[in-house]
Structures are given as structure tokens and as C-alpha cells.
Amino acid sequence: MREREQEQSSANGPIYLRVRDQIADQIENGLLQPNSRLPSERVLAESNHTTRVTARLALAQLEAEGRIYRSNRRGWFVSPPRLVYNPTEDYSFSDNVVAQGRVPATETLDVTTIEANAWLAAKTGLAEGDPIVRLHRRRQIDGRSVLVENIYLNARRLPGIETFDFNRSLWKLMREHYGLELARKQIEMFPTALVDPQAEALGVNAGTAGLYVTRCSRDNEGCFVEFDEEFWLHDTLSIQVDVR
Amino acid sequence: MREREQEQSSANGPIYLRVRDQIADQIENGLLQPNSRLPSERVLAESNHTTRVTARLALAQLEAEGRIYRSNRRGWFVSPPRLVYNPTEDYSFSDNVVAQGRVPATETLDVTTIEANAWLAAKTGLAEGDPIVRLHRRRQIDGRSVLVENIYLNARRLPGIETFDFNRSLWKLMREHYGLELARKQIEMFPTALVDPQAEALGVNAGTAGLYVTRCSRDNEGCFVEFDEEFWLHDTLSIQVDVR
DNA sequence: AAGTGGTCTAGACCACCAC
DNA sequence: TGGTGGTCTAGACCACTTG
């Protein structure tokens, strides 16, 4: 413990920031490749002559910056590049992921027909009690679950929608089967922590940083079609939008 | 310490999640108003028969959710509502804040003329070495610093821009003085932690959650006008965009 | 001067995962 | 079964802010 005094390295700040910088350098230099495992917390603590609490502070910093992520109790891993995502476009998640050289996967967790509650009525413009098909999906990139979503579909506007295969692109389904081009779209998003139903579905701890994204789509006549609510892990995406 | 065993409250999970829920309830019930101070960490620890480390875990959760924020070493405070922000619009920060019933402030921290480096050249389409006016500002809502930004202006397209008062709306300046309507705009944003130059400028700890937003604007001829780089505190804004 | 959060120690036990 | 992160204890000293 005593030899820390003579460690006159670059930063004279807190230990955990020095540990953070050291790991960040290793990531930037390619010593640590995307998705590779970091040394365990106990090893990091020992090799820096400090304790686990301090090592975890450094790891939490890197996690907040989106440079590393944790997987269950398996360890800490280097984050791969963010997926570039344009929420204003009708697009296929799978096509987009493939176009960026990654491997997508979609799991349909649940499909139910429900009635619009007050919250949904306010978001969609439907009346309370109107029928809605609720679709719950989880999506992965390279085997890592990166988002869960709730999709609320206007059952009257899309009759029979609940009978389709929801692991393919919804957007293609709407266009090809219903001859539908989405016109108006309202998008809202903000950073927040993922809490319990979603955190558990993604296999992360409650409190993990995320991005909450909603999209409300209408047809040419302004009729509500789809309300989409997405919970992303914060280090997995970069939003990109072109205007005009 | 021993009496914790009989504390058979709602959640049987970790202590810090119970403390989190208890504080979250007080915020939702209005017992804790926006911008009011929470009890100190030591008080929270004692009143929950636990230690500061655990109390801080609970506070960190609420901070990650955007429900509370910290101010220097003064304490923890309840977050006010998020500012609704549309980065695709030419708009005045001040007008927008006022329209939402809040009090805005802008501080110009620095104005310099620089030459485009490789990074700026790639972002703007200018050549390396082209002249750019760099404007560094900090903006507040109700006295809390919520973002710092770097604005890079095309000095050739906006001659004399560096002589103006930068505490007013840049967008109005461009329209009224240069007769300029911005046409194409590329926006990119992702959640990340705020690190040192920006964290310090905002008076927060390195590692505080933030949202990084960039906007690149061009005129009708596609000529680069402005590249804006914004660092927001993550709990202070909600992005909202309407398409078509 | 007193109180606050910021950092840190040196341990401990637990739940879960991989071997 | 051994190693991982997840949670927790019971303290400590420091830097800074506030009255």
C-alpha cells in the first residue's frame, strides 16, 4: 500500500481516474479488442494497489462513457462500435445491422390484443378501449441483447396483423401486405436508466444507463398506425437524422 | 443493525433498491419538490439502518434515472422536468426555455478564430486550414448549468460574425443579418458520460451521464455554415422531432 | 466551524456462472 | 467447485461550501 506514494504517473487526481485512463488507453491502442474480457475486479484492484471498491469506480466510469459493458456475473467486456440508427426512417433493424457488418437477431417475447388505456390513448389519439395489438420483442446484435421494445398497433387499421411472423420486418409487412406508407411520425427520446421489467429482459442490472425512444406513426390520412417504445442500452447506438 | 431482519417491507431485494423506491415515492407524491434538497447521505444511511456506501448506491440509481442530481458538495436535489428540445429546428434556446416556463441564461466563455483541423474538415466538408470561428458557450435553466457547446462557424460564409453579441440567438443573427435560411442539417447524438473539459465547465463530476449532440447546418446551396457540438446533462432534456 | 459529498480502506458473504 | 460480479459493513480522511 505504501508504494502508491511514489507512483508519480500522469494524472495526480483520484486513483480511480488513473485506473480508468489506463484501461481506456488499452482499449484505444487495441490491446483490448471489442467484446474481449477485462481482468477481473480483484485483479485490477491488486495490480493497482487498491481495493475492489476503487476498481469498480473506474469500471463504472468506463461503463458510463459507453466504453465497456458488463454481462451478468461473467465479467466486464469492451463495447463494440455503436449501431448507427435513424429513427425517422421506415427501416429494417436486421438490414441496418447487417449493413454495418454485424449479426442481428429478433425474439418475439409476446403478442397480445389489449384495449387502449389512458396513457396509450393520449399517445396515439385513439379512444380508451380501442383495440390494440401489443408486440413485445427483444433484439440482439452479435448475440448481445441491445434493446427491448413494445409495439402498439392499431388493430382496426391493420386487420389480421396478429397472425403474421413478427420476427421479420414490420415495416415491410405494412408496405407489402397493407399497401401502407407511413407519413407523419413523432419521435421522442431521452437518456434514462433501465429499470425492472426492461432491465431484467435485457439481462442487465437495474439502473443500467439506457436510451428511451418512442415513435408514433400515422398514415397519409393522419390515422394512427403504430406506436413504438424502445429501451436501448446506452452504449449500443448512435442516433443519426438528416433533415430536408 | 440487527433490526433490519424484521423489516419485512415490500421489496425483498437489495437494500439500496428499497431506499431508491422510498425516495422515488416521495418525489412522485410531491413530498420532495423539484430542486429541493434531499436528506444528507449520512442521514439517509442512518434512517435506513445502513451505511453511506449503500445510501450512495440508491442515490446513484435515482441519478441514473434522471430523478435527482447533485450539486458540487452541496447535496442532492430533485430534478425538475426535462426541457423539450427539437434539434432539427432553427430555434432560440432562450425562447424555448421561456415558453416552457423556465428562466434561461447563456454565458459566452470564449470566442476564437481557428483553422479547421482534420476532425472538423471531415465533419464540415471544409478543407484543413480553412478559417473557423469557434464559440464556446454555457447555458443554464433556472440557474442550473445544463449544457456546454462548441459552435464552429464558417468564417468565409459569415464575414464579421465574431464581432456580434453571442449571448443572443445565433439563429436570429444569421437570418436577420446574413439573410440566411438553413437548409440541410445532419444531426447525430448518443448518450455518454461527460468527461473532463465539459464536466468541469458544468461543475459536475467526471463520469456524470450526458447526451452528446452534434448538428451540421448548410445553406440552400449546400455550403457549410455551422457545426454545433452540445454536451447536455442527461436528466435535463427530452428530444422531440416531428417528421414530414 | 460545521456539514456536505468525494474518495478510499480492508475486509465479508452471497448468487450465479463456467468448468 | 472455484471464480466472477453484486451487495454490504464500519469505519476514515479530504476538499469544498455554507453559515
Write up what this structure looks like.
- The structure is a homodimer of 244-residue chains.
- By secondary structure, the first copy, chain A, is of the alpha+beta class.
- Chain A has two domains: 2-78, Arc Repressor Mutant, subunit A (Orthogonal Bundle); 83-239, Chorismate lyase-like (Chorismate lyase).
- In chain A, 26% of the residues lie in helices and 34% in strands.
- The longest helix of chain A has 14 residues, at 15-28.
- The interface between A and B is large, with 37 and 37 residues.
- The first copy, chain A, binds a DNA duplex (19 and 19 nucleotides) through residues 1, 14-16, 40-42, 50-54, 56-57, 70, 72-76, 205.
- Chains A, B: Residues 13-81 form the HTH gntR-type domain.
- Chains A, B: Keywords: DNA-binding, Transcription, Transcription regulation.
- Chains A, B: InterPro entries: Bact_HTH_transcr_reg, Chorismate_lyase_/UTRA_dom_sf, Tscrpt_reg_HTH_GntR, UTRA, WH-like_DNA-bd_sf, WH_DNA-bd_sf.
What is the element layout, followed by pairings?
2 copies of one chain form a homodimer.
Chain A: H1 15-28, H2 41-47, H3 52-64, E1 68-71, E2 75-78, E3 83-85, H4 93-99, E4 104-115, H5 118-124, E5 131-141, E6 144-154, H6 170-178, E7 185-194, H7 196-202, E8 208-218, E9 224-233, E10 237-243
Parallel strand pairs in A: 3-10
Antiparallel strand pairs in A: 1-2, 4-5, 5-6, 6-9, 7-8, 8-9
Chain A binds a DNA duplex (19 and 19 nucleotides) through residues 1, 14-16, 40-42, 50-54, 56-57, 70, 72-76, 205.
